[in-house]
Amino acid sequence: MEKNVKELTITRILDAPQKTVWKAWTDPKLVQKWWGPRGVINPTCEWDPRPNGKIYIVMQATKELGPAEGMKWPMKGAFKEVKPESRLVFSGGAMDDVDRASDTFLESTITVDFEDLGEKTKMNLHIVVTKVGGPKAEAALQGMTQGWTQQVDKLGEFVSGKK
Taking the model in full, what pTM does it have? Predict the structure, then answer.
């Protein structure tokens, strides 16, 4: 299926200056600290925020996720557009296994826009699912809103210094 099957938009006012939020999205060491839903760590985080720069992240479930502990969820993608401190556009693809050549079963285009509000930042995150394939994709779609919402919550806590 090669059509847009789901879209999600999350807008937040983050309690941090635009420069801080931008750095949290563009420094791989910082992305590694907040990426993913609650109960997930990122033992692998390759994040090259420049046009055609590659993305490869392996999320891993912690004890917080109970029986899922230890499970790994890899994703790969590439940056399409990088406008310093104002916009990131990148692809993201959920993969079957950590083999970098693995096919993706769910692909999305993610656009993140940042607006300077002085000591705060308005962030608009828009995800468009562009490819869905197989039963794993359906499960991922069902958890998409909750996962991205938790991820944005973690980002907000991170940039405000609350976590």
Answer: 0.92
